[in-house]
C-alpha cells in the first residue's frame, strides 16, 4: 500500500530561518570579494585564473542543479530503474566530452568571455547573435525551472505559497550575485556543492531504509505498481524516450551553454582536464542517487501531490525523513537550484555586457563602469522575466530536453568553426536556420510523421545519430576516427531506425537538428576558398578593462580588421 499523502512540514518559521541562514551566509561570503570599483572582466570570468578546487566545485554545482535532481527523480518515476541511470550517466559523460573541445576553444580564444564573442571574431554579427540569442533563451528557461523547483519546495514544506517561494528564491540568489557577478557564483558554488554532496550521502540511504529497504521492490512488483519495462535495467522504452534524446540534448548543452563556457574561460588553462573529470564523477554519482528516489516512489505506488511530478522529490523527503534530516534535504535542494540560478544570471549578464554592449562599441572603446551597470541591470531584468515565466509551472524535464535539442542546431557549426578554416559566416548562419526550420515542426508535431513525409525525417534522424557519435569520437580521437565512427554509426543504425523512429517524436526532432545543421554547413563550406587565420580571434577578443592585447606577441587589433560601418570582422565576409 502506498503511504498516506499526509506529509511533514518544516513550518514557516523554520523555513524562513533556513533561508536566512543560507542566503545570508552566501551574501557574507560574497562581501569579501566586493569592491567599490569592480573589474568588468573579473565580473564575467574572474580573470581566467581560477584554481582546481574552486573550478571543479563550481562546474559540479552548476551541472547539479535542482532541475537535474527533479528531472532525474521524474525519470526514475516514469521509466523505472534505468531512468536515473540514463539521465545521470549521459549527463556525466557530456561533462567529460567538454574538455577536449574546451582545450581547443581556450587555445584559440584564451581570454574571451562568451562563445558568442568568439563567433563574432570568427564569422561576424549574425553567428554571434544566433549563439547569444539561444543562450539568452536557454538561461532564461534554466532560471525559470530553478525558480519553479524552489517555489514547489517551499510551498510543500511550509504554509507559504508557491508564488511566495519563487519570490524568496529569486531575491536570495539575486542578492548575493548582483554585486560581484561570476566571482560570487564560483565562490558560493564551493560551499553549495559541499552541502549538496554531504546531504545526498545522508538523505538518500535514510529514505531508502525508512521506505522499506530492499523489500519495497518485491512488494511493488507484487502490487502491480511497475511494468516489466520499468523493472529492466536495459529498458528500450527508457532509452528511446529518455536516454537517447538526452544524449543529444546534453551534448548540445555542453557545447552551446554559456554557463559552462563561462567556467571554461575562467579556469586556468592547464586545469581544464582535471576540472571536468572531477565534475563528471561528482555529477553522475549525485544525480543518479537522487533519481533513485523516483524509482522508490514508483515501487511504493506513490501518487505525486496535485498530480505534479515536480513535487516528487520534496514529497519523498517530507514523507520519510525526520525533522532534522528534512531540513538538510531542504538545504540540499536550495543549494542545487541556487548554484545554477546564479550561474544563469552571470551568463546572461556576460552576454549582454560582452556581446550586446562590448561588441557594439568595440573592445577598446567599452567603458568598464558602463559594462558593470549593464550587467547588474541585466540580472534584475532576467530575474523579473524568470519570475513571470515560473508562474506557468512547466514540466522541468520537458524544458531541459527542449532547450538541449534547440542548441543541437548549433553544435556542429560551432565546433567546426574552431577547427575548420573553410567554414564561412554564410555556412554557419544558413545551417542553423535550416536546422531550426526542420526541428520545430517535427518537435511540436506540426507535421505528422506518417506516410511519405516520415521516411525523409527518419533518414535525417539516422544521419543525426552518426553526427552525434562522430562529434564525440572526434573530440577524443581526431578527425579520421570521428568521420569513421560517424559513417559506421549511420550505416549500422539505418536497418533499425527506418520505419521505426517515426514513433519517437522527441528523439527524431533532436537528431534531425544535428543532421540538418551538419549537412548544410558541410555543403556550403567544403568548396569554400576561405582559409581563416585563427590568430585573428586572439586579436578581437580579450580584456575590456585594460584594452591591452590579450596574448603576448599577438598583433594589435586595428580598424583594418573590420568591415567599415558595422564593426563586423572583414575576414568573415563570404
UniProtKB/TrEMBL annotation:
Membrane topology: Multi-pass membrane protein
A matching Pfam family: SSF
Coiled-coil region(s): none
Stretch list, region Disordered: 545-574
Highest taxon of the lineage: Bacteria
GO molecular function: symporter activity
Record's compositionally biased regions (Basic and acidic residues): 559-574
InterPro entries: Na/Glc_symporter_sf, Na/solute_symporter, Sodium:Solute_Symporter
Gene Ontology terms: cellular component: plasma membrane
PANTHER family (alphabetical): SODIUM/PROLINE SYMPORTER-RELATED, SODIUM_PROLINE SYMPORTER
Family the UniProt entry places it in: Belongs to the sodium:solute symporter (SSF) (TC 2.A.21) family.
Protein's name according to its UniProt entry: Sodium:proline symporter
Protein species of origin: Agrococcus pavilionensis RW1
Amino acid at each position: 500500500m502506498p503511504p498516506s499523502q499526509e506529509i511533514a512540514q518544516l513550518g514557516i518559521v523554520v523555513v524562513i530561518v533556513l533561508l536566512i541562514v543560507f542566503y545570508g551566509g552566501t551574501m557574507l561570503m560574497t562581501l569579501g570579494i566586493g569592491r567599490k570599483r569592480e573589474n568588468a572582466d573579473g565580473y564575467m570570468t574572474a580573470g581566467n585564473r581560477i584554481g582546481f578546487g574552486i573550478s571543479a566545485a563550481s562546474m559540479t554545482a552548476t551541472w547539479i542543479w535542482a532541475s537535474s535532481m527533479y528531472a532525474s527523480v521524474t525519470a526514475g518515476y516514469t521509466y523505472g530503474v534505468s531512468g536515473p541511470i540514463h539521465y545521470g550517466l549521459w549527463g556525466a559523460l557530456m561533462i567529460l566530452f567538454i574538455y577536449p573541445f574546451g582545450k581547443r576553444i581556450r587555445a584559440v580564444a584564451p581570454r574571451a568571455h562568451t562563445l558568442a564573442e568568439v563567433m563574432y571574431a570568427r564569422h561576424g554579427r549574425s553567428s554571434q547573435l544566433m549563439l547569444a540569442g539561444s543562450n539568452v533563451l536557454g538561461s532564461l528557461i534554466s532560471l525559470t525551472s530553478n525558480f519553479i523547483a524552489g517555489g514547489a519546495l517551499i510551498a510543500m514544506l511550509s504554509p507559504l505559497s508557491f508564488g511566495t517561494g519563487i519570490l524568496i528564491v529569486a531575491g536570495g540568489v539575486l542578492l548575493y550575485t548582483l554585486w560581484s557577478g561570476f566571482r560570487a557564483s564560483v565562490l558560493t558554488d564551493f560551499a553549495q556543492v559541499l552541502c549538496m554532496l554531504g546531504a545526498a550521502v545522508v538523505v538518500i540511504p535514510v529514505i531508502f531504509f525508512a521506505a522499506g529497504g530492499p523489500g519495497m521492490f518485491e512488494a511493488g512488483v507484487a502490487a502491480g505498481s511497475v511494468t516489466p519495462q520499468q523493472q529492466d535495467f536495459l529498458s528500450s522504452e527508457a532509452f528511446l524516450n529518455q536516454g537517447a534524446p538526452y544524449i543529444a540534448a546534453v551534448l548540445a548543452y555542453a557545447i552551446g551553454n554559456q554557463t559552462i563556457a563561462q567556467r571554461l574561460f575562467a579556469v586556468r588553462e592547464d586545469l581544464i582536464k582535471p576540472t571536468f573529470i572531477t565534475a563528471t564523477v561528482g555529477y553522475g554519482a549525485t544525480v543518479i542517487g537522487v533519481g533513485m528516489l523516483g524509482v522508490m516512489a514508483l515501487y511504493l505506488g506513490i501518487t505525486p501531490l496535485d498530480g505534479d511530478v515536480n513535487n516528487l522529490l520534496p514529497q519523498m523527503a517530507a514523507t520519510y525523513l525526520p525533522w532534522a534530516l528534512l531540513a538538510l534535504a531542504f538545504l540540499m535542494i536550495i543549494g542545487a537550484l541556487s548554484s545554477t540560478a546564479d550561474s544563469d544570471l552571470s551568463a546572461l549578464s556576460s552576454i549582454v555586457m560582452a556581446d550586446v554592449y562590448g561588441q557594439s562599441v568595440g573592445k577598446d572603446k567599452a567603458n568598464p563602469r558602463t559594462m558593470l551597470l549593464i550587467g547588474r541591470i541585466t540580472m534584475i531584468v532576467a530575474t523579473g522575466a524568470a519570475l513571470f515565466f515560473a508562474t506557468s509551472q512547466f514540466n522541468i524535464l520537458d524544458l531541459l530536453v527542449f532547450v538541449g535539442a534547440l542548441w543541437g542546431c548549433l553544435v556542429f557549426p560551432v565546433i567546426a568553426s574552431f577547427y575548420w578554416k573553410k567554414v564561412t559566416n554564410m555556412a554557419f548562419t544558413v545551417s542553423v536556420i535550416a536546422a531550426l526550420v526542420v526541428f520545430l515542426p517535427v518537435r511540436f508535431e506540426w507535421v505528422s510523421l506518417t506516410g511519405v513525409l516520415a521516411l525523409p525525417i527518419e533518414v535525417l534522424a539516422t544521419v543525426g545519430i552518426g553526427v552525434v557519435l562522430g562529434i564525440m569520437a572526434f573530440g577524443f580521437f581526431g578527425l579520421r576516427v570521428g568521420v569513421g565512427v560517424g559513417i559506421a554509426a549511420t550505416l549500422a543504425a539505418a536497418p533499425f531506425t527506418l520505419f521505426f523512429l517515426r514513433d519517437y517524436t522527441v528523439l527524431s526532432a533532436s537528431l534531425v537538428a544535428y543532421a540538418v545543421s551538419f549537412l548544410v554547413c558541410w555543403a556550403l563550406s567544403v568548396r569554400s576558398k576561405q582559409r581563416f587565420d585563427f590568430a585573428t580571434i586572439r586579436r578581437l577578443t580579450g580584456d575590456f578593462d585594460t584594452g591591452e592585447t590579450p596574448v603576448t606577441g599577438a598583433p594589435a587589433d586595428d580598424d583594418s580588421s573590420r568591415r567599415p560601418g558595422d564593426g563586423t570582422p572583414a575576414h568573415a565576409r563570404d
